[in-house]
Write a structure and sequence with these properties.
mainly alpha
Amino acid sequence: MEQHHLWNSLQLDSLEEGEGFSKCPPVDQVLLQFLQLFASKGVQGAGSRAKAGMVRDLLAILEVADGQWLWGGCPPNTTLAALRDLVAALSQYAAPPRQEPDGEGHTGSETAVYAATADQAADVGLVFCSILAKVEAARGLEEPGTVDIGSVLHKIAGPLYVFAVTHAAEKPWSKPRSQTVAQELLGSLLQVSGCPSVPEFLRGSREGNDGWFAVVMRCLKPELTKETWQHNPAMKYVFSWTLQQVTRPWLGQHFESVLPPSLLLSDDYRTENKILGVQCLHHIIRNVPAADLYQFNRGQVVYHALFNHLYSKEAQPLQVVLPCLLDLLPILEKAPQQPARKSWTVTPLDKVLRLVLTHMEVEHQLALRRVYAKSLPAFVERLSIRIACHLKRLQQVIIGYLEVADGPEEEARLAILETLKQTIKHAWPRPSCKESTAAVQMSTLRNI
């Protein structure tokens, strides 16, 4: 076996599984020594190589360690604290490099750093998998003085989940090996926690079990503030993906923790972050009770954040903003705090449609024309008979879009024809029964 400073310093050269650990220092002292040596090494060159060797040595120690040494050799609180600090240090070691807020693209040096990060993540992921394997193996032990497995999970489940999701997807800082290890780690975490899937792990799989979503959000919160979220490139993806796993009715209790990061992302000037933020807001709107949106005018805050995106001249953000608004506006119109409106009162939906029609009248980019045209049928359907208030401008838009070809698939023209169909369906003159009878009688008298 390859020898390193940590392995030699602990005098474990000849240890085999199940042998010799009774003569070893307690596990908390071993982990403390590891953390001290680990922190003393540099982050580049020889220091980086030394850290990589130490991580591999730690993996070798954990693989041959017995459960009694790991969980029963010292006071439980001391072991849990040392394990928590170990997970935090190794997660930081394998985290993607921090970025400047205005950084664009990836330079050659950044690509090399990302490649090194992937290798580090793979090694660290194996260490975490080994820890979870020992936790699973010790699940049935109920000897006095041993560490409670539930307490272990409460210390490390959140950071391990964040680490696994960070490296499981295909990103600049990942490689196939690091992705495979991260996916195995996530599977091991689900197995140890007794959950068959990620959604059940987050929301809770049994009655009385709140799940781990609140714990995960506490881990993410320091990296999702106004001052920090742009420095860590991975956390926005971890937050977005995690949020999408929690649906109604479980998301409502976490509304206050997920809304601010979503608004921060949607308010960024980068197209990618805008889209990510609006997608998060759309998921929240669909899965949070309307009463929570009414409280403290949160729904109005979301509405104004989305309304500002309607002035964008990019097709991609508008593709996600318009469906999001169409789901939000009916909720706002039913707000109980609002005074009773007369049928002709201008609503937020009317304001949004007016702005959309204004942009459509002067828009020449085919991509934007297609996005606007595809959204119109939904507006007509939501407004129903009230679309009659917009007929004059709508007619001009329909004629203008039918006159201009937009490629072989004619997406805009087909969408405009669907708009015309919906308009005829909802706004066609519908006389009352008495008016129809009177008209028939008058026609009969004229023919006599």
